[in-house]
Amino acid sequence: MRILPSGEHALLVEVADLDAVLALYDGLRQDQPAGIADLVPAARTLLVKLVPGCGAARRASVAEAVATSAGVPRGRTEGQVVEIDVRYDGEDLAEVAALTGLTEREVVDAHTGTPWRVAFCGFVPGFGYLVGGDPRLRVARRSTSRVRVPAGSVALADQFTGVYPSSSPGGWQLIGRTDAVLWDAARQPPALLRPGVTVRFRETA
């Protein structure tokens, strides 16, 4: 682990992998050390945003709390559960079935059969990188990205699943689509999916 200053009001914690990020994120959410305003996870880092006006002594105290929390085994903190209805008619569903050795029906059952967790967000506003699903669904990105992926597309890539909040380029394997609104600037909070949220996908006609 490395704990680095990130401007005047944050610390950037570098760890080995995503599992370490999620463990640290859960630990700090449970402990809630004084001086922390927000936590922003990524694939191998955790940005610890400090309360404005936090002085050097408090910054050092937070850094110590981060280091201590990293060494303590924790269970996962239970957060909000979001259910997303999906029509499993994606352009790459047959290819995903071939790549995994499953039938298309088994791909759908695997995707809906276990809960997923939002590990971190990025790429475009409202896009969550979800982990923890059926390991049989682990597939590589497409060799060639699409110029336009429609909003609401449900996709797989590597260990992740995700839902495209808006129309954008993308190289993930498309297995379905949803009418759920992932990002709405008029909503509070705007993002439907945020780090720590549990997602359950449900098949719909």
Summarize the structure.
This protein is an alpha+beta fold.
Q: Report, as a whole number of angstroms, the end-to-end distance.
A: 47 Å
Note the beta-strand portion.
Answer: 25-35%
Could you give me the name of the CATH homologous superfamily of the largest domain?
Cyclophilin-like
Number of helices: 4
* Main pleated-sheet profile: 4 strands, antiparallel
Please report the total strand number as a whole number: 13
Indicate the percent of residues in helices: 10-25%
- Classify the fold: give the CATH topology of the largest domain: Cyclophilin
- H/E element sequence: EEHEEHEHHEEEEEEEE
Task: Provide the domain count.
Answer: 2
Q: Radius of gyration, rounded?
A: 18 Å
Morphology = elongated
Residue-averaged pLDDT? 93
Sequence of strands across the biggest β-sheet: 1-2-4-3
> In the CATH hierarchy, what is the architecture of the largest domain at level 2?
Beta Barrel
GO molecular function: ATP binding; hydrolase activity
Pfam families: CT_C_D (PF02682)
Keywords: ATP-binding, Hydrolase, Nucleotide-binding
Domain Carboxyltransferase: 1-193
Folded structure, characterized:
The chain is of the alpha+beta class. It folds into two domains: about 1-70, Gyrase A, domain 2 (2-Layer Sandwich), CATH 3.30.1360; about 80-205, Beta Barrel (Cyclophilin), CATH 2.40.100.10. It contains four helices and 13 strands. It has helices at about 20-30, 55-70, 95-100, 105-115; strands at about 1-5, 10-15, 35-40, 45-50, 80-85, 115-120, 130, 145-150, 155, 160-165, 170, 175, 200-205. The strands form four sheets. The chain has a four-stranded antiparallel beta sheet with strand order 1-2-4-3, covered by helices on one side. It has a four-stranded mixed beta sheet with strand order 5-13-6-7. α1 packs across α2. The mean pLDDT is about 95.
